[in-house]
Design a protein that fits this description.
The chain is α/β, with parallel strands linked by helices. The protein has helices spanning 2-38, 53-69, 83-96, 112-120, 145-162, 182-198, 212-225, 237-251, 272-280, 291-306, 334-338, and strands at 41-47, 72-78, 100-103, 125-128, 139-143, 171-176, 201-207, 231-234, 264-269, 285-288, 315-318, 321-323. A six-stranded parallel β-sheet has the order 2-1-3-4-5-11, sandwiched between helices. α5 packs parallel to α6 (182-198).
Length: 339
């Protein structure tokens, strides 16, 4: 009898242990599931707009890296060129509790207060392509816009010399990017400063606000006031060249290198339309931005900040790549990668 009782007791204990083990395993499984959901990192991305090839390239760089990470969710929105809309978008990001923000500011001054509010709330903010006032973002990743302007002036002189002209022969129409943005201001300062050093004359500097229609009108106005213009600097071929080419065509001055009456054109950005214009000889040269790299670097940096890593370099500047007819087909240029 004692033996039977002992066997029953042992069996009961084994069943109890099995039940406990099963419960523990279920608990662990639930914990792991919750952990996987909790590990999803949400990044809010607010871009100036999504109609521009350049901004689209930035977003491709962000999304490609996010896909390779596997646990990063990108919530991308377009401000449609409105600072007020972008401020509202950042407010929404803060309220919804995103882990980090990547921002391509519409207006460097207007967005500063909202960026500070996000950073103060513990949400790292990485600005891309242009900075916000006050050096308050977690990090800014942009082209070295000043150097892009300098490079564009050097390329303009090189193009002129290749066509038998000297620096003093150049009469330049400078098409300005929005001066309320750091990119627009710095490109102007780099280009104008280098032109002065080289002895190149800027006969007119007209605003475009990064808008092709405004650029179209600026070219017509520029030539009406200065018939001797023989060179144009576009602060962005993406935002301006369609307007520039239309205006020059209307004036009978949109002709390729080597033809009589060719207007020398250099630009910053190196977008798809610009690349094609270089190949065809209408744009002489461009200072291209590394826009895919800019996007991936912005995401990598905001993820590091979320992880608690110290951001050693809070202002990363990407150097320009000179594009001429000789290398316009290169697979290393971002328009050739995304087409």
């Amino acid at each position: 009898m004692k033996k039977i009782f002992a066997m029953l007791l042992a069996l009961i204990m084994m069943l109890s242990l099995a039940a406990c083990g099963s419960a523990d395993n279920n608990s662990d499984a639930n914990a792991n599931t919750d952990g996987d959901e909790g590990d999803k990192i949400v990044i809010g991305v607010s871009l100036h707009d999504l109609t521009s090839d350049g901004y689209a390239a930035n977003l491709i760089g962000i999304k490609d890296l996010a896909a390779s990470k596997g646990n990063v969710e990108i919530k991308a929105v377009s401000a449609e060129g409105s600072a007020e809309t972008q401020i509202s978008q950042i407010e929404d990001f803060i309220t919804s509790g995103v882990d980090g923000i990547i921002l391509l500011p519409v207006d460097s001054s207007a967005l500063a207060g909202k960026v500070k509010e996000a950073v103060d709330a513990g949400i790292p903010v990485v600005c891309m392509d242009r900075s916000v006032d006050g050096d308050i973002a977690t990090c800014t990743i942009e082209s070295d816009n000043y150097q892009h302007g300098v490079e564009s002036a050097d390329l303009m002189l090189a193009a002129a010399e290749a066509q038998g002209m000297k620096a003093e022969d150049l009469k330049v129409l400078e098409l300005l990017g929005a001066q309320s943005t750091s990119a627009g201001l710095e490109r102007h300062e780099g280009f104008a400063g280098r032109c002065e050093e080289l002895g190149i004359t800027i006969v007119s500097a007209l605003p475009t606000e990064w808008d092709n229609e405004v650029a179209y009108k600026a070219v017509l106005d520029g030539f009406q006031a200065n018939q001797d213009i023989n060179a144009i600097f576009e602060a962005s071929d993406i935002a301006m060249h369609s307007g520039v080419s239309a205006a020059l065509d209307q004036l009978g001055k949109y002709v390729a290198v080597g033809e009589d009456g060719h207007i020398i054109i250099t630009s910053v950005d190196g977008g798809p339309n610009g690349i094609e214009a270089v190949k065809a000889g209408y744009i002489d040269a461009m200072a291209e931005q590394g826009l895919l790299i800019m996007g991936s670097e912005a995401l990598e940096t905001v993820l590091s900040a979320i992880n608690g890593d110290a951001i050693a370099d809070t202002h990363i500047q990407l150097s320009p790549v000179a594009v001429t007819k000789d290398n316009a087909d290169s697979d290393e240029l971002w328009p050739n990668k995304i087409k």
